[in-house]
Amino acid sequence: MSDKASTGISRRELLMMIGAMAGSATSYNAMASMGLVEESRFNGPPKLDGDPKGASVLILGAGIAGMVAAMELRNAGYKVKVLEYNSRAGGRNWSIRGGDVYTELGGATQHCEFDKGLYINPGPWRLPYNHHGILDYARRLGVRVEPFQQLNFNAYVHSTQAFGGKPQRYREIQTDYLGHVSELLSKVTQQGKLNEMVSKEDEASLLDSLRRIGALDRRYRYVPGRESSNRRGFQKPPGGGLDARPIYSKDLTGLSEILKSGLWRSIGAGWSTEFQSTIFEPVGGMGKIGEAFGRELADLIEYERKVVKVHQNRKGVEVTYVDPKTDGNPRTVTADYCLCTIPLSVLSQIDLNINPKMQAAINAVPYAAAIKIGLQFKRRFWEQDEHIYGGISYTDLPIGSIGYPNTDYFQPGKGVLLGGYMFGPNAMKFTAMPPEERVKKAVEYGAQIHAQYPQEFDNGVAVGWHRVPWTLGCFGTWTDELRAQHYDDLCQIDHRFLVAGEHASYIPGWQEGAVTSAIDAITRLHHKVINA
Amino acid sequence: MNKMKMQGVVAAVLLSTSAVAMAAEPDAAEGKKVYTTICQGCHMPDAKGAVGAGRYPALANNPKLAAKQYPMMMIVNGSRAMPSFARMLAPDEIAAAVNYVRTHFGNHYPDVLTTAEVKAVLPQKSDYERH
């Protein structure tokens, strides 16, 4: 077989196309068989057997990691106290609802004017089904969950550089891409060009699978017809009565146009394990989990405590905190051990006496820029006009994506969209704007996808994570090199001090990282206490 | 910002010292642009920083800026939670930002950081330049 097929495609190019199409699934299976991809390590609540003999643990931070640790250590018989900077529990587990007031670093204050029941989650907003830990705590705390639509075939993929800037439906781009690629592969299979790679017996199955997966006709062509229209949609869908006869979709997008548009980049956006169905969200906002933890641990958490110093000696740990409003009124509290869940961005500025390697690890991790913008509209036009019920549209505009509410479908009245979700340079640029400017820009950009924006916009809030007073960034951005150099040093117990949080996990930026990190930390701490 | 302009600045630096002063002029507008679109996200529009559970240091009236290498290395390497901007900003943008903060916000340091000096300390060719 010659390397160059008569279609003008080299074998290498063909394999690359297969790889691009099958990419996520294939590499995931390969990695899973090598043990490189883990589902959550969560195996149920930790079994902290044995008597801690009255040992006390001071926990810094009432986010998910701190509160998981507090609940389990309390249940195991420890004396537990939690110090929290904010006046609420949850940390980055947080929902902003109508009536809430948020002041960011620099003093800009936003008064959220959303209608009752409407919210945005500035931090985490999804609970993947395979994040067993956070889901288990939500269940134990009685937090109701509902499905989160990650992948909506009727949502848009959008490029300012393609299709005249007109957003395309995911189902059309996905179907056309798979159809064309399947047809190509069918052709070379039929031409016997895959002889070296596919056995004669497999060839028939391969063709059959391509026909089904690619929505090809009986002659293995991706053409207008029932098969393609069933996937991408009809020009006129079938109905009832006299005028019932469907008209097939004729305007299939050409392969070259799809490839040039770059919209194929969005096809696999929801395919990785943390985005696969079924994903959940708490009813009423992600903050419901943190709030439930806060109620459960009401006796243990002290709010508005800004930690400025953590020193340990042979007998215990001494933590000094001040009033966050004044930086005054320093007070000291002591315990046998300290579990610190304060983000490294803040912890690297706190006076610690720990071993130099651990301090170096705490100082080594930069924090990611991220921003979320919630926009309230006078009506749910995305549902009423465009039949988009939940899910996400993706765009190459700076806003990155538009997330539709996955709850209260068909309700009259106002609705809130996630009008922008950015990382990297765009997030930095938006963070550098005043909040009202961020909202204004998100409305301007979003209007290129939904023309109803200017008419229907009501109000909005915008949270840039580098301006959040208690995190100074969104999450720890580890690299492989940084992990090799510092990760193990960060996770060690240094005499009476240890850390937990998403920053001490391999699931950065996810609540599951905080949960599994906390459980690992307290399990090791408990072992040390019992054997002391 | 484009490569042509970048090379122009480098050429000016190499040709004569008077050209350095000339090159510093368009720098101010560029420096202000970088500061207002990126830096002020944390260091704030008045460069006075901010205090929460942790703090962002003030760049205004900051004696640490006396040595131009100090802010340059901060931007190139990052520091603690502050990320490195070596891959996000072009060398002349880094130089412009440094020159801007060293001559504004109550700072009066006349010596100019050149693009060549930034390039010399970049860990490798930045992604920006490889484009």
Automatic annotation (TrEMBL), chain B:
Keywords of this protein's UniProt record, alphabetized? Heme, Iron, Metal-binding, Signal
Query: Where does the record locate the signal sequence feature?
Result: 1-23
Q: Where is the Cytochrome c domain?
A: 26-105
**Pfam families assigned to the protein according to its UniProt record, in alphabetical order:** Cytochrome_CBB3
The answer to whether UniProt assigns keyword Mitochondrion to this entry is: no
Q: Name one GO molecular function term.
A: heme binding
**Is Iron among the key words of this record?**
yes
Q: What is this protein called?
A: Cytochrome c
Task: Provide the species name.
Answer: Solimonas marina
